[in-house]
Design a protein that fits this description.
The protein is of the alpha+beta class and 170 residues long. The chain contains 6 helices and 7 strands; from the N terminus they run αααββαββββαβα. Strand 1 and strand 2 form a beta hairpin. The model has no long low-confidence stretch (mean pLDDT 86).
């Protein structure tokens, strides 16, 4: 079973439910696990908690390119105010954010997208939480409750909510 199939099973959705093909047409290279995720499940609000973004999304607020500049501007502002950051801002590429405003990035430290790691930035603190796996592995761990270090309130991640498409969540 692939990581995408495992995530789909945990969320109770069909692993070929709502593919989003623009990831294959994007100018930017993405990790293979993310490409598989977008092709099989698409963007949306996963488990009622994390908004997984898509490349070139026609829906406002859901496109990686659209939010990337905003996220980087926010990080630049925080850095200018003295907040230390463990990563070079230019090496961060967002792929998700939580309903609480926490942001999830790829750390693009290698020319090979499949070597990128994941970092979670808590919206209410300067804390960063690195994850050595890919984005789908990170999502699986989140849904399974294996991210105790993130201090997510109980019952915030709701696998029973499945994946709500961007049109529904706005």
């Amino acid at each position: 079973m692939t990581s995408v199939q495992r995530l789909a099973a945990l969320l109770g959705v069909d692993p070929a439910r709502q593919g989003f093909d623009s990831v294959r047409q994007a100018a930017t290279a993405f990790p293979k696990d993310y490409t598989s995720l977008m092709t099989a499940l698409g963007p949306g609000l996963y488990a009622g908690f994390v908004r997984v973004l898509a490349p070139s999304s026609p829906i406002r607020g859901w496109g990686i390119e659209e939010v990337c500049e905003t996220f980087r501007e926010d990080l630049g502002y925080l850095a200018s105010r003295g907040e230390s950051q463990p990563y070079n801002i230019d090496d961060l590429q967002p792929f998700a954010e939580t309903i609480d405003g926490d942001r999830v990035y790829w750390v693009c430290h290698d020319v090979n997208p499949d070597a990128w790691t994941v970092a979670f930035n808590d919206a209410r603190s300067p804390d960063w939480y690195p994850f050595t796996g890919g984005c789908v592995e990170w999502l699986v761990a989140l849904v399974e409750g294996r991210h105790a270090d993130l201090q997510i309130p109980p019952n915030q991640v709701r696998p029973d909510r499945g994946i709500e498409p961007p049109e529904v969540t706005g």
